Amino acid sequence: MKTASVPDYPIHPLLADRWSPRAFDDRPVETDKLNTLFEAARWAASSFNAQPWYFVVAQRSQTEDFERLASLLNTGNRSWAEQAPVLIAAIARLDFPHKGRHNRHAWHDLGLAIGNLSVQATALDLYLHQMAGFNADTAAEQLGIPDGHAAATMIALGYLGDPATLSDTLRAREEAPRSRKTIDEFVFQGRWNAKRDAQ
Length: 199
Known about the structure:
The chain is α+β, with helices and mostly antiparallel strands and 199 residues long.
């Protein structure tokens, strides 16, 4: 387990403990725990309650489905992600079903659902790593994603594994200290880049 960084201000331990490993144990994820993760995603907030999130999931034991998802990943991600016991494609519906117009908040709302899923995973001693390195066009074809929907990210999910199973380069990244911007680098007072008043 990576040594947790110390937050500058008090936050919930589930938020502080969340991180994105590349080393996963081959232990399967129990079905009831998977269902709990998607239940957490289900309760995320969304614009007009459109709930524009969808997930295509495969466990490694589901060989054909798992290989289909793994094949979407770029080479660098596939080298470690296919060792995870679960792969997930996260998909957004890009319009409002009741309005028939573009939902510019769909990506944001999918992110909220994944955020819920991520925190719930940490509570269950599970970890996930989101990946932008995949072929979204191939995903649409291979996964049968309908028009008006798009794959946003791929997710590797499972129990924490041994960093020694990774290549030297990936192990170094796995064991490196976590880093975050300071609050003052992304929170401004009243307008962009304006320093906040001292509290």
